[in-house]
Amino acid sequence: MDHDHPTDSEPEPRFRIRAAHTEDTVTVYQAYGPEIGAPAARTGRFPEVWKRDRMTWIKPSFLWMMYRCGWATKPGQETVLAVDIRRDGFEWALRHACLSHHVPALHGDRAGWQRRLREAPARVQWDPERSLRLGPLPHRSLQLGLAGEASRRYADEWTVAIRDVTPLAHRVHELVRAGEMEAAARLLPQEPPYPVADGLLDHLTTGATDFAADRYSGSMSPKSQVSMANSPSSAAPVER
Question: What's the predicted TM-score (pTM) here?
Answer without folding.
Answer: 0.84
